[in-house]
């Protein structure tokens, strides 16, 4: 079954652009295109094979029109479509051009495309340098964006492609990785949570009706679910089975209002009467369990719990001012222990961890956000359970409590020696010792015997001299020593104070930029030139000829650059262009040898007397 390549909205105007525009859906595949009207009572659907389409034409005016013609002329009968924007029209145009291009290569010269008002000319020869490059609109946009961001690549493209040395396909064939690395195609960066705390969301108070209004946006609700897991759990359990969404947030805002007013007695009384409200005033057990789980992952040697009593908040004159009033740090037994420090720490932890959901926080449906957040937290909990946290904690504690002063000396690592044939090993060692020349060394520790051995060695050296070839001549040794001393003494005072000499950086910026551009062109031409070989087709031969002419021009340009340079820069420029000259000379030599070899083969085929024919001499009897 033929798969659909693209689907767009298009208005069918009939065989000419003067007909009424009927909206519908246009789908195209590799072999056919279909159009289904939005209103079946207006017109019937279309199902046409591309084999009946001979050419296509598109408009350049205000309307995005595409004419799929059955003939080579724009006035021939066809199918005219009008698109809402030019992007959809261009995508369909490129797809049709690709299909017609395949038909042309299989069946002969049939026109592929022309602008409206122009008749396509059949059987137009196409040179390899100007061959048609079929690519979609998205790839063309990536190419243009890459050229706009890379000025050096833009110059190279302008010189080679616009100069008709290379085609678009040849130029981009080796740069597909640059198009794939386009950062705009990758996943976008996720938006994190705002640093603003929930304390900054202040309620609106109406003095006439004594009514307090909280404005909870989807962003704030998502932040509440993330920072207060108990509220998130209560929402999943109670909404919509026990209460509505509005009733739930009304109770939550009521609990927050009592907390802001520091009315603990009223909060305790209402929590006793309403069990649903008690969820918001009670201590969050999920946060406590999460804190204990995180503490087990940190360095066990850093016990923060030991410093809990090292504070002065319980002394008179200490406290935290919030909303114009001092934060009360004394709570009744069993009451909710919550302060501004807890809120700041919890909010900071949530912001640093990042947004667990991306794209759902702005949803209007609160239940969707709540359930999606629950699934994300469940997946995270499963992955954390898979890790052996307790075992890792014990290993980390063991490594942190190791005292090197109380540890014994560690043995140096060694490789055990394994001798498979001891007799062969020791015999070879004894043979090496027995082969030494000169007097045998003393085996005892007698000083007189060692002194006699030393005298014998000195007498042998005075008589025979030092005949070992490994010793260097005194004059050569002195010269090497002098050179090393001079080099080391010079490096001692210049190392770290002067940068390494770079010939390219010593040139003026215009000359440097010109040489870099010419080097890039030479590299590109040589790469395409060597890819052409062996010349197995006429297209490769014509491409090699074009590249050879372009390399000749750049060779002349390099020579002019070197000759026109000033006297103080000519030597540096010669050093830089010399490798380019060598690479180009190698390419020219290969080109000439290959041309001569092909000419020799052609001459041998055309030489008389080599094959049967009219030029073969006949033997005549005398």
From TrEMBL:
<dbReference type="GO" id="GO:0006366">
    <property type="term" value="P:transcription by RNA polymerase II"/>
</dbReference>
<feature type="domain" description="BSD">
    <location>
        <begin position="129"/>
        <end position="173"/>
    </location>
</feature>
<dbReference type="InterPro" id="IPR027079">
    <property type="entry name" value="Tfb1/GTF2H1"/>
</dbReference>
<comment type="similarity">
    <text>Belongs to the TFB1 family.</text>
</comment>
<dbReference type="GO" id="GO:0005675">
    <property type="term" value="C:transcription factor TFIIH holo complex"/>
</dbReference>
<dbReference type="InterPro" id="IPR035925">
    <property type="entry name" value="BSD_dom_sf"/>
</dbReference>
<keyword id="KW-0805">Transcription regulation</keyword>
<keyword id="KW-0804">Transcription</keyword>
<dbReference type="GO" id="GO:0006281">
    <property type="term" value="P:DNA repair"/>
</dbReference>
<dbReference type="InterPro" id="IPR013876">
    <property type="entry name" value="TFIIH_BTF_p62_N"/>
</dbReference>
<dbReference type="GO" id="GO:0006360">
    <property type="term" value="P:transcription by RNA polymerase I"/>
</dbReference>
<keyword id="KW-0677">Repeat</keyword>
<dbReference type="Pfam" id="PF08567">
    <property type="entry name" value="PH_TFIIH"/>
</dbReference>
<dbReference type="InterPro" id="IPR005607">
    <property type="entry name" value="BSD_dom"/>
</dbReference>
<dbReference type="GO" id="GO:0006289">
    <property type="term" value="P:nucleotide-excision repair"/>
</dbReference>
<keyword id="KW-0539">Nucleus</keyword>
<dbReference type="Pfam" id="PF03909">
    <property type="entry name" value="BSD"/>
</dbReference>
<dbReference type="GO" id="GO:0000439">
    <property type="term" value="C:transcription factor TFIIH core complex"/>
</dbReference>
<protein>
    <recommendedName>
        <fullName>BSD domain-containing protein</fullName>
    </recommendedName>
</protein>
<feature type="domain" description="BSD">
    <location>
        <begin position="208"/>
        <end position="260"/>
    </location>
</feature>
């Amino acid at each position: 079954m033929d798969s659909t390549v693209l689907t767009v909205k298009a208005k069918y105007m009939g065989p000419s652009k003067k007909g009424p525009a009927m909206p519908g859906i246009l789908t195209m595949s590799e072999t056919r295109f279909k159009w289904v009207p939005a209103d079946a009572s207006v017109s019937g659907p279309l199902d046409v094979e591309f084999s009946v389409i001979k050419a296509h034409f598109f408009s350049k005016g205000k309307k995005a029109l595409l004419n799929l013609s059955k003939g080579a002329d724009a006035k021939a009968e066809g199918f005219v479509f009008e698109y809402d924007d030019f992007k959809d029209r261009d995508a369909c145009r490129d797809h049709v051009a690709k299909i017609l291009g395949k038909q042309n290569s299989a069946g002969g010269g049939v026109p592929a495309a022309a602008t409206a008002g122009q008749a396509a000319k059949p059987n137009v020869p196409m040179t390899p340098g100007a061959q048609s490059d079929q690519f979609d609109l998205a790839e063309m946009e990536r190419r243009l964006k890459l050229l706009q961001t890379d000025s050096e690549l833009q110059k190279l493209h302008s010189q080679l492609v616009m100069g008709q040395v290379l085609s678009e396909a040849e130029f981009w064939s080796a740069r597909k990785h640059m198009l794939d690395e386009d950062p705009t195609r990758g996943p976008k960066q996720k938006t994190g949570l705002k640093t603003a705390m929930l304390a900054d969301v202040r309620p609106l108070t109406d003095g006439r009706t004594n009514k307090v209004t909280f404005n909870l946006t989807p962003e704030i609700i998502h932040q509440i679910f993330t920072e207060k897991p108990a509220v998130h759990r209560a929402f999943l359990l109670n909404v919509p089975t026990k209460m509505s969404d509005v009733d739930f947030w009304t109770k939550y805002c009521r609990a927050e209002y009592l907390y802001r007013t520091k009315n603990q007695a009223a909060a305790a009384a209402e929590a006793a009467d309403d069990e649903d409200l008690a969820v918001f005033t009670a201590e969050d057990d999920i946060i406590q369990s999460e804190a204990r789980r995180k503490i087990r992952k940190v360095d066990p040697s850093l016990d923060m719990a030991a410093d809990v009593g090292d504070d002065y908040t319980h002394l008179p004159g200490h406290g935290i001012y919030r909303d114009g009033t001092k934060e009360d740090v004394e709570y009744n037994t069993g009451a909710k222990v919550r302060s501004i420090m807890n809120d700041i720490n919890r909010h900071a932890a949530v912001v640093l961890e990042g947004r667990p959901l991306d794209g759902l926080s702005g949803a209007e449906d609160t239940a969707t956000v709540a359930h999606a957040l629950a699934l994300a937290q469940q997946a995270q909990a499963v992955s954390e359970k898979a890790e052996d946290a307790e075992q890792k904690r014990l290993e980390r504690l063991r490594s942190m409590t190791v005292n090197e002063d109380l540890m014994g000396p560690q043995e140096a690592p060694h490789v055990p020696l394994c001798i498979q044939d001891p007799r062969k090993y020791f015999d070879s060692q004894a043979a090496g010792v027995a082969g030494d020349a000169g007097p045998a060394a003393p085996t005892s520790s007698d000083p007189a015997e060692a002194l006699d051995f030393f005298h014998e060695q000195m007498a042998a050296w005075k008589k025979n001299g030092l005949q070992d070839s490994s010793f260097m001549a005194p004059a050569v040794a002195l010269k090497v020593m002098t050179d090393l001393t001079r080099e080391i003494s010079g490096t001692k005072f210049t190392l770290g104070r002067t940068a390494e000499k770079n010939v390219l950086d010593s040139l003026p910026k215009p000359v440097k930029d010109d040489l870099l551009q010419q080097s890039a062109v030479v590299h590109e031409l040589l790469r395409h030139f060597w890819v052409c070989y062996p010349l197995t087709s006429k297209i490769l031969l014509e491409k090699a000829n074009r590249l050879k002419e372009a390399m000749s021009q750049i060779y002349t340009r390099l020579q002019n650059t070197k000759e026109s340079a000033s006297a103080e820069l000519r030597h540096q420029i010669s050093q830089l262009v010399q490798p380019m000259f060598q690479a180009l000379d190698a390419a020219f030599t290969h080109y000439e040898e290959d041309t001569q070899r092909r000419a020799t083969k052609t001459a041998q085929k055309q030489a008389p007397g080599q094959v049967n024919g009219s030029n073969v001499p006949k033997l005549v009897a005398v």
